[in-house]
Amino acid sequence: MSSKHTPGPWAIEYRGGHSYNDDSPRPVICNDKLQRIAIISLWGAVNGLAVEMEANAQLIAAAPQLLEAIEGALRISNLWTLGEVDAPFEDEAKALETMKANFEAAIGAATKEK
């Protein structure tokens, strides 16, 4: 699958100078060439949500790896064909189909075009 996003890995850098009235360092998501991808808002830190702000930065930085992992898991899960399923394994078969649908939905959400 080809993606249009900036290739990973992404990392968190702490940089200042992103606001006209506040020069304090904030999390900035960067690629491996230290090019800025996203600046995490200080709104959370100002309102006592610094831990949440940091967690958001970590999740965003992990996005390329997560997308790659989900794409790989979907390819592997597509190798399994579920013909007739014995009664004791019906729940597992349903779980596999749900998992595949969730993989496809996540990939679609991350790669959809506007």
Widest sheet: strand ordering: 1-2-3
What is the SS-derived class?
alpha+beta
Main sheet attributes: strand count, strand direction, barrel closure:
3 strands, antiparallel
Strand fraction equals 5-15%
Mind explaining what this structure looks like?
There is one protein chain. With 114 residues, this protein is of the alpha+beta class. It has two domains: 11-61; 65-111. It has helices at residues 43-46, 50-61, 63-77, 90-111; strands at 11-15, 26-30, 36-39. A three-stranded antiparallel beta sheet has the order 1-2-3. A hairpin with a 5-residue loop joins strand 2 (26-30) and strand 3. Helix 3 packs across helix 4. The longest helix has 22 residues, at 90-111. It is elongated and about 65 Å long. The two termini are 17 Å apart. 7% of the residues are buried.
Helix/strand layout:
Layout (H helix, E strand, L loop, with lengths): L10 E5 L10 E5 L5 E4 L3 H4 L3 H12 L1 H15 L12 H22 L3
Helix pairs in contact: 3-4
Features:
single chain; 114 residues; alpha+beta; 2 domains; 4 helices; 46% helix
